[in-house]
Fold:
Amino acid sequence: MKKVLFIIGSLRKESFNRKLAAEAEKLIAGRAAVEYLDYSDVPFMNQDIEFPAPEAVRRVREKVADADALWIFSPEYNYSYPGHLKNLIDWLSRPLKAGDRQTPLAINDKKVALSGAGGAAATAKCREKLTELLTLPFIHADVMAEPQTGIKLNVEAWTEGRMILSEEQKESLRKQVEAFLEYIG
Structure:
């Protein structure tokens, strides 16, 4: 069974993107193993502490390397991705040993799906910029361009903390799940 590692771009426990990931997990059930990446303890990228890599960085690199695919669920912060998500990707894009640019990175060639729940733009800019970042030549992730799921949150989400997906949104997520399972083989 394929292993899919879910990466949530919001660190908030009750985040809408964590809730969206839980919906995707239900749709995947029994067809792939899903695990959530905890990267809340990963320090800010800093070359002074890069080698040897901090334990939290080593752990997330192992989790990413062990997965067959990644699925990132992220909100949009100021028309882009959250800084802590960028920080994670920065660590994943760094060499494993000082000066070694030949050894493949944990994220290289990893198949990736992108989804997000947010405001009026339904995380379109975030997903666009994540695609640009993840497909840089030295990161070289294999991002599934289509379909992606962008959820424009309803009024209840913002006022009551409840995310209620419309039938159309549920169908969009279902189509992405099916396409991604096929994509990862």
About this structure: The CA atoms of residues 45 and 90 lie 7 Å apart. The radius of gyration is 16 Å. The first helix runs from residue 16 to 28. The mean pLDDT is 96.
